Amino acid sequence: MAKGKIVAGFLAPHPPHLVYGENPPQNEPRSECGWEQLRWAYERARASIEALKPDVLLVHSPHWNTQLGHHFLGVPELSGKSVDPIFPNLFRYDFNLKVDVELAEACAAEASAGGLVTRMMRNPGFRVDYGTITTLHMIRPQWDIPVVGISANNSPYYLTLDEGMGEMDTLGKATRRAIEKTGRRAVLLASNTLCHWHFHQEPLLPEDMTQERPQSYEGYKWDMRMIELMRRGETAEVFRLLPQFIQEAFAEVKSGAFTWMYAAMGYPNIPAELHGYGNVIGTGNAVMEWNLDKHRKGLRVNDQPVAA
Ligand SMILES: [Fe+2]
After folding, report:
1. Is residue 153 in some structural domain?
2. Cα(133) to centroid of ligand 1, in Å?
């Protein structure tokens, strides 16, 4: 079997508003419009996925919470209705997805060997969280590529940030080894919003875009600063600032997907492509791509973030 590889990573946030704004047949609520900049950003990302032709999409979601260990979807096919508990008025989605169980098991085994507590999720009636579903729908609405779903064990919230991020780094490196061993062409999806300061009240019409703007000017400036660094491939600086960014912008990257993805990719110093940025109920969201295939020549795999 040929050695597998990660062909790209994406920052692929999961506000359910994006699915609501698009009106796919799977989602029950209907909208008039909304959040177009982000939806068009995802259209660009969809074109990249089409060109990359991955065997599998791996997604790490903050809204599948498993405090005891890192869990992996382990049922070949899952279907049901996914509902956002915060925005049930916007997201009631009938999902049907296929899981790459062999790769998921390999990820769990490698993570376990790396010292993490892991568990395969074998419940056939499991209701997949809205973070996983929204990210997957927005990046590949055809649902024709198998997936690996990884939970957020929230260690950065109940251990120190350093310890928690250390677990995400280990999880990322384990994911990379599993992909290489199983021969997959894989795409990683970090399902994270950037600045997470948000409004506490929804407009009467949720898609009324005259009401949509950053909730926090400081948070907005943080997002622009971090995006600019990522666009320049300044990975060491991104990770030097990450704890302060998390603290001051209440950034959702704290949940670990972002670090997991970067670690799996080998903390590359390649420029990320920004497909688009937008606010959702005041939070900051960027759809970004690290195309390792395009930058494969001279690409270094690092154990930790290093200066370019
Ligand atoms: Fe979220």
Report:
1. yes
2. 12
Distance from Cα 40 to the centre of ligand 1, integer Å = 20
**Does residue 306 form part of some domain?**
no
For residue 109, how far is the Cα from the chain centroid? 22
pTM of the model: 0.97
Measure 34 CA to ligand 1 centroid, in angstroms.
18
Ligand 1 centre and the CA of 231: distance in Å?
A: 23
Domain with 203, as residue range(s), is 5-291
Distance 91 CA to ligand 1 centre (A): 13
At 192-247, the pLDDT tens digits run 999 999 999 999 999 999 999 999 999 999 999 999 999 999 999 999 999 999 99
Of the candidates 112, 195, 196, 116, which has an alpha carbon nearest to the alpha carbon of residue 163? 116
In 3D, which of 239, 298, 270, 287 has the Cα closest to residue 15?
Answer: 287
Number of domains in the chain: 1
For residue 104, the CA-to-ligand 1 centroid distance in Å is 23
| Helix or strand run (H / E) with residue 147 | strand 147-152
